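Second attempt. The first submission of Metallo-beta-lactamase family protein had a stray character pasted in from the spreadsheet, which I only caught after the job came back as garbage. Lesson logged: always re-copy from the clean sequence file. Corrected sequence (467 aa) follows.
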Amino acid sequence: MKIAFHGAARTVTGSKHLITLKNGQKLLLDCGMFQGMGKDTDALNRKFGFNSSEVTAMILSHAHIDHSGLIPKLVKEGFAGKIYCTDATRQLAALLLEDSAEIQENDAKYHNKGSQAQGTPFQQPLYTVEDAKNCLSFFQEKNYGEWFPVLDGVEAMFTDAGHIIGSTCVHVRITENGITKQLTFSGDVGRYRDVILKSPQTFPQADFIIMESTYGNSLHEDVHTSVDMLLSWIERTCIEKRGKLIIPAFSLGRTQEILYALNQLELENRLPKLDYFLDSPLSMAVTDLIKNYSSYFNKNIQRVMQSDSDPFMFNGLHYIKSVDESKLLNYRNEPCVIISASGMAEAGRVKHHISNNIENSHNAILLTGYCEPNSLGGRLMAGGKEVGIFGVQHEVHAEIGSIKSMSAHGDYEDLSQWLACQDPSHVQKLFLVHGEYDVQVPFKARLVKKGFQDVEIPERHFEVGLT
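This time the job returned cleanly.
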């Protein structure tokens, strides 16, 4: 068999890994969208690097857009096989893909208004809302811990990755010429001390491993300090400076963790009496859906739920649904907290909130997850004194901060713990994906010291044979 890396290769987004068997069948692991790559983003998302109609089957590790976001395009261009995932992943992907399609359509309309006036080429969305809905009929739901047939000579099993609700590590057994090999794809590995989810599960010995490495060279703060750090930012920005605290947050995962932390502060009688706005219809829908999967929560949050039926709701929380309501937040003079998507601040309503508040030194922007270096969040995190937003340059006077302990990605200790169930001498090859190259190089050195002798960092479209 051969494997080719068509995304998340020496970068974090766009996860797509294509396995080609000797009999010609092709199995795709994830079909994610590139995000936050600046001017290159659109071009990267328009070319897969393979023929969609030749892909026989697909396995989806989880619903995040950088892993699922190009599935409607894959189907639109001829894919006719099955897409295997967990029940929760299918339900979440339905919400996220339709939202992504709406963004595609709106961006194309906005772009084409200018194109008509300037005589430049029109832009088509990558896919439409109808495409997003159509692709869902290809999804097949599977449970954790059960081997299921995928193709002739190929079976797969899911284990809990502990990253988001329904997330999986994917284990594929491939039999060719009477010899069976196991390939494990980590998806995104979660935290072992996550405040909401269970820890990643152990898994059978693998011959080949494709492993994410987003935080392969860093350690997060203790997750239990996240609540205190969040409180500190609220007190400094909203109480002391009487400003607005803008929190970009991914609709799936990060938003729920922030809401849970704020709820915990209220249970402890420490939550400042302010207005807290969740300005993201998608985040609201995702939060409501996640409540249906409380069996995925760890023991701590399940204990909390014995006395608090809704761990994501607290006094002072307001849901903002309409665009007009969102715009009105910009005219508020009172201190408040605004939680809004997207997490990289590259799109969505939060980008407007940052644009309207970034030049006021009383305000603060608190980043709570990974940001691609070229994204707005990445540029702010890098300390830029001036940033362009919607074609307008803004001086950065608002305080910029981050809480790394809220990341749903494991740090190098979490990643090492995930690998601890493996005998390194039996792993023929380990590929590092879903990470920046300057992070992957030192992480590779760590893995070699742990006994993984053949560790490779593939480039995009790199293909290698495995025996």
